[in-house]
Automatic annotation (TrEMBL):
Residues 221-380 form the TrmE-type G domain. PANTHER family: TRNA MODIFICATION GTPASE GTPBP3 (PTHR42714), TRNA MODIFICATION GTPASE GTPBP3, MITOCHONDRIAL (PTHR42714:SF2). It comes from Anaerosphaera aminiphila DSM 21120. K(+) binds at N231, T250, I252, T255. GO terms for molecular function: GTP binding; GTPase activity; identical protein binding; metal ion binding. GTP binds at residues 231-236, 250-256, 275-278. Its cofactor is K(+). This is tRNA modification GTPase MnmE.
Amino acid sequence: MMSTETISAISTATGEAGIGIVRMSGEKSVEIANSMFKPISKKSLTDSENRKLLYGHIYDGDKLIDEVLIAKMMAPSTYTREDVVEIYCHGGIISVRKILNMTLDRGARIAEPGEFTKRAFLNGRLDLTQAEAVIDLIKSKSEISYDVSIRQLEGSLSGKIEEIREKVMSMTALIVANIDFPEDEIVEATYSSLNSDAKDVIKSLDELIENSNRGKLLRDGINTVILGKPNVGKSSLLNGLLRDERAIVTDIPGTTRDVITDYVNLEGILLKITDTAGIRNTEDKVEKIGVDLAKKSIEDSDLVIAIFDGSRPFDINDEEIINLIKNKKSIILMNKSDLSRVVSEKDIRELLGDREYLDISVVGQGEILKIEEQIKNMFFDGEIRENSEVYVNNLRHVRALKRARESMDEVKLDIDNEVFLDLLEVNLEDVLSSLGEITGQTTTEDVLDKVFSEFCIGK
C-alpha cells in the first residue's frame, strides 16, 4: 500500500535543542532532499550509500540555511517501508521550520498526526497493537509503563491475539470442511472436540480481559483524588506524598479553591494526585466552583483518599463525603492523631459503618509510608512489579475482546445445544472479526483515523 505522496514533518520537540530533525517519507524524498543539500564530499545524496550519514549544508538557492547531517534510507527496510530521508540540523524553531518549508515547496506535503506510523501499519511493518504501543512509549511517565509498551511494541499482545485467532480459525476450518466435504476422509467435527476448543478460547479471552484493569493502571497510573472538608489536612497530605511544598497550607478554611494536580512515582507506578477544594456548603461563588470541581473529579478517579478530622466533631459535610465515595475504591484517613481526639469510636462507626480507616497524622513522613503501603496492597497485592504476563491497557482492545467473548458464549451455547454446524460458523466469524479489530486485520478507516490522531505530527 505504498503511497504516491511524499510527506514531511519536524520529528523533534519545538524549542531550543542541540539537534532538530526533519523527516520525509515517500518516493520523492531523496529527490527533494538532493535539491536542497550540498554535500562537502561533492557526492550527491542520490549517489551516496544507503544509511550513511553525509555532512554538508542546506541551501535555498544561493542562501545558506544550515549546516546539517543527512541520511537516506531506502525502501523497504525503513520505518514506513518507503524511501525515508532524515535531515539533522541545529535545534531551534527557525532552522527546522525553514528546512521543513523548503521540503514542502519542493513537492512534499505536511504529514498528518501519526502518519509515519500509519504508513508503517498500512505497509505491513507493524500491526495496530504495535502502532498503538509507539504512542504509549512516547507518553510513558513511569518505568513500568515504558516496559509494558516496549513488550507490546515487540508483539506480545498481537502474538497472544494471533494464538486465539488460530484456534478459532481451526474450529472454523474444521466446520467448513465437514459441511462442504461430508463424504471425504476428513477429521469429524464432533461437538465434544468443538466444546473443548471453545472452552480454551473463552479461557484465553477471560485472562486478557481480567488483566486489563492492571494493564490500564500500569500504563496510565492511578488517578487519585484527595477529598475532605476544609482544614482536615488535604494539602498537607499532598505535600507529604510529593515530598514537596506543592500546596499552600494554612489554618484558614477554603484556602484551596481550585483543583491542584501533580504526579508521584510509587515504585515505578504513576500516581496522578488531585487535591480538591474542601467539601462544604458555601455562599462564596469562587469556592463553590471549586467544591463542584472536587465532586466531579471523583467520577473519573481510580482511588479516593478521604480525610476526616478526629479533633473536630463530625457534621453534615462529613456525611456527604461518605455518600460521595460509597461506590468508589477508597482509603479513609482519620487525621490529626497528634491532637486531642474529640470524636469517639462510636462516632466513627456511625459515620463509616464497618469500613476500615487509618488513624494517622499526615504531617509525619512515617504516616505517609503507611498510606503508600495501603495503595500497593489495594491495587498490586502489596508488591508492584511488571511480570511476563500480556497486559491489555487500551480501552479499544478491551471492548473488542468483550465482543469476541460474547460471540464465543453464543458459540458455546450452540455447541451445547448441538445446533447445525453452519450456524456455529456465523458466530465464529464474529469472533474473528472482533479479534481482527485489535490487530488491524478487520478495522475501519474511522478507527485508524481515531488511533493515529493521538500521535504527534512527526511520528
